[in-house]
Specification:
Shape: globular
Distance between the termini: 31 Å
CATH topology: HIT family, subunit A
Helix content: 10-25%
Number of strands: 5
Bound molecules: adenosine monophosphate
Strand order of the largest sheet: 1-2-3-5-4
Number of helices: 2
């Protein structure tokens, strides 16, 4: 059974895509938690960060660097937060690894 994000990768579900390359896809979150809320996902199906294998180390770096590139493109490079929810108890609801890139409002610490 394909996850929602796999369906977005395959074009079966439309998303507001802000970046795409051979390794990853980035699109606007449908229920934004900040004025800017973008999801960055690998095209490879990895359910959650803790499922990543040794061979995925480069891909994980690419995801982080892609967040950097998108932040620069949006001129928010000095003010953004990245979040990865790993597992249902940590708030993960879609089991395809994704980074939340959030910006456009102040963020408090600790996170809820
Ligand atoms: P998480 O709870 O960390 O698994 O994050 C999943 C995110 O996917 C949530 O922030 C949702 O709002 C978002 N989401 C769910 N469906 C869609 C969709 N069709 N397009 C864009 N974002 C979505």
């Amino acid at each position: 059974m394909s996850t929602l994000f796999k369906k977005i990768i395959d074009g079966e579900i439309l998303a507001d895509i802000v970046h795409e390359d051979d390794n990853c896809l980035a699109f606007k979150d449908i229920a934004p938690q900040a004025p800017i809320h973008i999801l960055i996902i690998p095209k490879k199906e990895i359910p959650m960060l803790s499922d990543a294998a040794e061979e995925d180390q480069k891909l994980l770096g690419i995801l982080l660097f892609t967040a950097n590139k998108i932040a620069k493109k949006l001129s928010i490079e000095d003010n953004f937060r990245l979040v990865i929810n790993n597992g249902a108890k940590a708030g993960q609801s879609v089991f395809h690894l994704h980074l939340h890139l959030l910006s456009g409002r102040p963020f408090s610490w600790p996170p809820g």
